Amino acid sequence: MKTLYSTDGFERIERDIAGVRTVAYVAGSGPDVVYFHGGGTWHGFDFARDWLPRFRVTLPYHPNFGESADAPTVVTVPDYARHYRALFASLGLESIHLVGASLGGRLAAEFAASQADRLRSLVLVSPAGVTTPGVPDVNHAAIKQEEWPGYFSMDQAFVRRFWPGHPDAEWLNARGREGQATGRALGGSVEAELRANLQRIRTPTLLLWGRDDRMVLSAHAKTWQALIPGSKAEIIERAGHLLLDESAQARAAVVRFIGEHEEQG
After folding, report:
1. Distance between CA 209 and CA 39 in Å, rounded?
2. Contact (CB, 8 A) for 100 and 125
3. What's the rounded Cα separation, in Å, for the pair 254 and 251?
4. Which residue did the predictor score with more confidence, 67 or 265?
5. Strand partners, 158
6. Angle at the Cα of 80 (from 138 to 180), degrees rounded to 5?
7. Is the distance from CB of 97 to CB of 32 less than 8 angstroms?
8. Phi, psi dihedral angles at 97 (to 5 degrees)
9. Is the pTM of the predicted complex or chain greater than 0.85?
10. Looking at residue 265, what is its pLDDT?
C-alpha cells in the first residue's frame, strides 16, 4: 500500500521472524533507540527525525500492522514480546533504549518487565491498558469515522494530511486490519497481570502524556507512575494522543531522558 508519509532517508530492513515477514526502518547514528508504534501506522514516523542526530533509531512495524505480514500466531501481548526478542536478536540489538506509544507503550512495558537486561531506559507515551478509579473509559467503538481526527491530535491540520476526507477501500481496509489487531492484543489482556508486571520493571522509566489526550486520558499517568517503581511522569500542555507527532517539547523530553541514562551507563 502506498503511504501518505515519507520514509526518505531511512533504510528499509526486512527479516523473517519465525515465518513472519517483519519490516523495520532504520536511520541515524549513536546509541540504539527502538520505537514501538501504536494501533495505527497511517501517520508515519517523521517525528523520529528529530532524534537522528543523537541516536540510531529503529522503527519496526508490528506483525499485523503496516508493511509487516499478517501473523495468526502473534495475537496477544506476550506473543508480541516473544516476536521482538527474536527480531532484536536478528538485528543485533543487545542494549537499547525503548520508546512505545499507546498500544506500543503497553507492548514496551511488558517487554521491559521480562527483558530488563536488554534495556537502558524506557519511555512510555500515553500507554494503554490500565484503568483508574473515577476516570471513564473512552468508548472507541462509538467514535464515528469523521470524528476520529479530533481524538488523535490538537493539531487537526497535521491529522488531515494523512486522514483523507473520503478514504478509498484500500485505506479503510488497512485501518480495519490494524484496528482488529489492536483489539485482539488489548482485548486478550488481563489488567491484574499487567499491574503485576509493571511493578517488576526496574528500567529507568519516563511516562509522557498530552494533557488533552482524548484517546487515553492523561489522568491515567498517576496510576502508571504509582505502579512502575521510580518512574517519572511529564504532562505536556496543549497536546493530544499523537504526542510525539505534534509536540517538539515531547520529542525533546525523550532525547533528554535517554541522554541522561546513556551518560549514566
Report:
1. 16
2. yes
3. 5
4. 67
5. none
6. 45
7. yes
8. -105, 130
9. yes
10. 54
